Amino acid sequence: MKNQKGFTLIELMIVVAIIAILAAIALPAYSNYTKKAKVSEVILAASSLRTDVSEYVATNNALPPKEWQPDFQKTQYVSALAWDNATGTITATAQNISDDVDTKTITLKADASQVSKGVVPSWTCSGSIDTKYRPGSCQNKTVSAGE
């Protein structure tokens, strides 16, 4: 019998199969991770407007009027940012993320119970973007003004 040097074909095929299995697991997880990172930018845009609304409330002891609109320019992942005085809601619309996320929204709804005291104590984060892409702080729950 000859002294074998190197790998046999079967050993190489096993290595290729293991790499294929690992790739099949890793690629979908990475795809969800990148979508989640992009959705974070949408939430960040809404949060910047949350700060503006809180400053307005602190100064005027009232929610901003209907005519009040945020100073906003589109970003790579945010197509629109809007304020609705009637419901006390900030809406950020996603774009260029993926087909299952584009045109969907993140909403931040103000707790108006203490606005007359110049405070928005908390906001409820929700929206039409699937919860698996939203961070833990935006899983249809209330967050305090400082978060």
UniProtKB/TrEMBL annotation:
InterPro entries: N_methyl_site, Pilin, Pilin-like. SUPFAM superfamilies: Pili subunits. One of its GO terms (biological process) is cell adhesion. One of its GO terms (cellular component) is pilus. PROSITE patterns: PROKAR_NTER_METHYL (PS00409). The chain crosses the membrane at residues 12-30. Keywords: Fimbrium, Membrane, Methylation, Transmembrane, Transmembrane helix. Belongs to the N-Me-Phe pilin family. This is Pilin.
